[in-house]
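Following up on my earlier thread - several people asked me to post the actual chain instead of describing it. Fair enough. Here it is, all 133 residues.
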Amino acid sequence: MSLLSAAVQVNDLVANSKVVMFGISDEPQTRRIKFLFDSEDVMYTSVDVDLVDNGPDVMTAIKHMTGHSVAPVIYIDGSYVGGHDHILAMNLDGYLGELLEHVGALPDNKVEEMKATWTRPATGMAGDDFGII
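Reply from S.P.:
Thanks for posting it. Predicted structure:
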């Protein structure tokens, strides 16, 4: 697959999903974001670039489009948001939950439950949750 085809594939996924994460299946930062999204029932599309045939082309296309060359790479509502550190920072300040609610990436029953935790920072890290709040 060519770089152009990979870029078209990335753009199609981003245009047709509220939240898209391009990551590496066994990479800790990717697993943290998946854990966060899964634990809050975020409706998202995940592409593990190490498990798809054109993964290297996909990451090269993303690097050319965003300047971000390290997985995971997250898009919300068609816009590049950033990587692992950006998502965790947005979660800590409460903005992530508000954004996900605004774009319709959360089930209705989850929104009120999440609002109670959006502005409370973590008090510690638990081994099983990879340090996710």
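Residues 101 and 112 are 10 Å apart (CA to CA). That should answer part of your original question.
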